[in-house]
Amino acid sequence: MKKILGMAAAGALLFALAGCTASGGASADGPKDTKDLVVGFAQVGAESGWRTANTKDIQSSFKEAGITLKFSDAQQKQENQIKAIRSYIQQKVDVIAFSPVVESGWDTVLKEAKNAGIPVVLTDRAVDSKDTSLYETFLGSDFVTEGKKAGEWALNEFKDASGTVPIIQLEGTTGSAPAIDRTKGFADAIAANPNLKIVASQTGDFTRSGGKQVMEALLKAHPDVKLLWAQNDDMGLGAIEAIEAAGKVPGKDIKIITADATHDGMQAAADGKINFIVECNPLMGKQLIEIVKKINKGEDVPKRIVTDETTFTSAQAKEALPSRKY
Ligand code: GYE
User: Which strands, in side-by-side order, build the sheet including 311-313?
Assistant: First the structure.
């Protein structure tokens, strides 16, 4: 028994070593046919319009490319994502891609993937692992820049204010890269004018119901609020319902900035209820497939791939709406 276990351990060690040296993830037998590739994708959940668009784009891009995609929805729970990743390791998929719900706590499972020789691609959200060899690349937005763009619009909008401008911030999922980074970018930008003051900042978990509920409570505590910075469209849309129910006019009595630029957000901006949207592009399917193909061929992939993004005022949203893809 001892001997068998010993052999198994030696085998595992060899396997681990092989995994560590397989540069770029190409197998020892050379690249596979694209149609034989299997990718496991561990999605965050279905919390927002952005996420729905992201899922749809990834699924349809893989279908189009003829690459098998195993897909799981973690319902915004890290433990479910970890389970999904472990099952992809067991199934020996060729590449694992996932959008980490929060930044911390991934090292163990990422090491398991590395030891099994399965390359990992981060899409959309980052991890805070110090060891960057645990993943091939991170494909996604620059969330600090997004927060900065939101803050810069606020700076300009309230540049002539003589007194305090009370701001409510609805944060995304606590501990997630977009919540951490958008908070930072916004704070850095508005620091240029001490009149701009965040009087309340709470999470709405990137959902419409979360945004509505939190805004209802915060409006009671801060009836003089002049600006809402909701870190995604869905929370902004939920907050708009709360603002209207409180007898105020969104976009006028309370100016509103959101992030994402999904269809529903852009519609609200075109209607004048949202004043400014910072775009965050969920259409990552094609880029992810290019990355998977490169990994399969053993080609180098840049460690960070940033998606291109813009911003929309109400007028620009009205113009762009008919041609929006999500
Ligand atoms: O802004 C939000 C979604 O990670 C960029 O997650 C993504 C964010 C997006 O729930 O709507």
Answer: 196-203, 165-171, 227-230, 255-260, 276-279, 311-313
**51 C-beta closer than 6 A to ligand 1:** yes
pTM of the model: 0.91
For residue 232, the CA-to-ligand 1 centroid distance in Å is 7
Whether the CB of 98 sits within 6 Å of ligand 1: no
For ligand 1, pick from 77, 124, 142, 144 the residue to mutate: most ligand atoms within 8 Å of CB: 124
Domain with residue 273: its CATH number is: 3.40.50.2300
Per-residue pLDDT tens for 234-258?
Answer: 999 999 999 999 999 999 999 999 9
Same domain, 163 and 230: yes
Question: Residue 259 and residue 149: Cα distance in Å, rounded?
Answer: 10
- Residue 89's domain comprises 32-141+282-307
Closest CA to 92 of 122, 59, 115, 108: 115
Answer yes or no: is the C-beta of 40 below 6 A from any ligand 1 atom: no
Nearest atom, ligand 1, residue 177 CA? 4
